[in-house]
Amino acid sequence: MAYIQGSYDDLFTAVPSALAGLLDDGDAGASVAVFVDGEPVVDVWGGFADADRTIPWQRDTITNVWSVTKTMTALCALTLADRGELDLAAPVGRYWPEFTRAGKEKVLVRHLLAHTAGLPDWDGAVEELHDWPSATARLAAQAPQWEPGSTAGYHSLTQGFLVGEVVRRITGRSLGAFFAEEVAAPLGADFHIGLPAEHDHRVALTVPPSSRDEDYAASAPGSGTSPAAATAIRVRDGNSAAWRRAEIPAASGFGNAHSVALVQSVMACGGAVRGVRLLSQAGCDLAREEQFHGEDRLLGMPVRYGLGYGLFGNTFGWGGWGGSLVVIDPDGRMAVAYVTNQMREPADDNRGLEIVMAAYDGLKGLRA
Q: Is residue 210 flagged as an active site residue?
């Protein structure tokens, strides 16, 4: 069995066992954390940080969590809303006047968070994602693909720029800077949106599925209703230094399971963790206000979207391309994070769910 490092409560033994099983099945490396009441009951890691399996995964290894980053961006927006600085029901143009072009006057801030704004596709060059002014100007000039708020289509890359520009207009700080100063620093969380070069040596680069190479590209499952013009992101793009430096708040966050679970424990614990309050209970509850329930026209699958998070029964959270996942259970005051550098084919990937179910086994014992 794979060697697992870290610590865990004896009630949660199923969690490191599940991680060991995934590594035994061929995964390169990963970390898992379970926080209950804002404290870690599981904080474990194992495997390797590189495809050649020569660099052991360490306590401070971080990796690209892809769309799990969206939960960090959402937390920033909800924090501003809770402070009264952002009205989620306001037109985006109130904060970003240039955005109102091309029929977007009726796009509301909540539409950006719920993937209902009608701007799901990135049709510029990959390199333009690294240039915030260019990326946001392109989106401001686009026309919506549907009546804003009428349906949903996953804004896989664009959501971060849309929400992030609203945050920038309000605070005068980039999304990455706001997150670093207002969220990560107070909590002591090792999560970054826009990674400084000094952390590069800790990064576990993304490993494509076993039958693929670094040209493996992200694509939405389902019927493929996204226009052919939409730009596909490849593994090699995400592994580039330019991607790490850029702030792409829907997809370029770097962290480990400990940092993801720590930050999202704020949402599981009514807005405060370890004496640090980021928002109120009411502010947390906004995340679970259903904005859309039905089939996502890009993903081709049924979804429930709240404000910045996917809704799953009484829980909420989101996953990233390649398998990383965070699930938040406010009833259990629990946050579960699984972070991996090893991609699998999406149709064959239930790893995050296995970890979450193992965490619930421990929670039942803890609450018994």
A: no
Q: Say what the pLDDT of residue 366 is.
A: 85
Q: pTM (2 decimals)?
A: 0.96
Closest CA to 295 of 235, 218, 220, 243: 220
- pLDDT, tens digit, for every residue of 233-261? 999 999 999 999 999 999 999 999 999 99
Question: 30 near 42, Cβ under 8 Å?
Answer: no
Instruction: Quickly name the fold that domain 4-367 has.
Output: Beta-lactamase (3.40.710)
Which phi-psi region, left, alpha or beta, contains residue 12 (left: φ > 0; alpha: ψ -120 to 50)?
Answer: alpha
User: Looking at 17, 31, 67, 134, which residue is catalytic?
Assistant: 67
* Spatial separation of the C-alpha atoms in residues 262 and 361, rounded to whole Å: 20
| Helical (H) or strand (E) element with 62 | strand 62-64
Sorted by where each begins, the domain ranges of the chain are 4-367
Work out the burial of residue 171: count CB atoms within 10 Å of its CB; fewer than 13 is exposed, 13-18 middle, 19 or more buried: middle
- Distances from the Cα of 179 to the Cαs of 112, 261, 285, in angstroms? 18, 15, 20
Task: Tell me the pLDDT tens digit for each residue of 154-168.
Answer: 999 999 999 999 999
Report pLDDT for 106.
96
CB 302 within 8 A of CB 286: no
In the numeric block, the tokens 């069995």 are attached to 1
3-state DSSP call for residue 164?
A: helix
